[in-house]
Design brief:
CATH architecture: Roll
CATH class: Alpha Beta
Number of strands: 6
CATH superfamily: Hotdog Thioesterase
Distance between the termini: 23 Å
Strand content: 35-45%
Shape: globular
Helix content: 10-25%
């Protein structure tokens, strides 16, 4: 599988992530404890009300969470472990619709030992070919808070 990336940003955990590939997730930015991603909402991502299915928004936020939790270029010691979700909460604030571009911005808030806390904001915007690349990502549609745990790969 080929990683879907933008601007040269990539992350090894996307190599076999078929769900993120199907969703068309693009990685915009990666830093230690941070990830920004985006995707276009397609018809097959909608619920019966014609808005983005909550599960799609959740899965999108979960991908940003995973990218922020795991180093893009792990050291040999880091490569022996993975960081996974131990629990999450999501609050849906506004709906998003087909054709909109959603962006998730994930940031680590705290990390102690093997546990971490991350906040992910998810935004929706109507595509604008003339928009500057550093403009606001749209209106806030969801707040996702993730609790992580680092475990052995074995």
């Amino acid at each position: 599988m080929v990683e879907t990336t933008l601007s040269g940003a990539s992350h090894h955990i996307l190599t076999n992530d078929y769900a993120s590939e199907w969703m068309g997730i693009e990685v915009l930015k990666l830093d230690d404890g941070h990830a920004t991603i985006r995707m276009h909402l397609r018809q097959e991502m909608l619920n019966g009300f014609g808005m983005a299915h909550g599960g799609m928004i959740f899965a999108f936020g979960d991908t940003a969470f995973a990218l922020a939790c795991n180093p893009a270029n792990p050291t040999p010691k880091q490569a022996a472990n993975i960081t996974v979700a131990s629990g999450v909460d999501i609050n849906f604030i506004k709906p998003a619709f087909q054709g909109q571009v959603i962006t998730a911005v994930a940031n680590r808030r705290a990390s102690t030992g093997r546990s971490g806390l991350y906040d992910i904001q998810i935004y929706a915007a109507t595509p604008d070919d003339n928009a500057a690349p550093d403009t606001e990502p749209g209106e806030l549609i969801a707040e996702f808070r993730g609790r992580s745990r680092t475990i052995s790969k074995k």
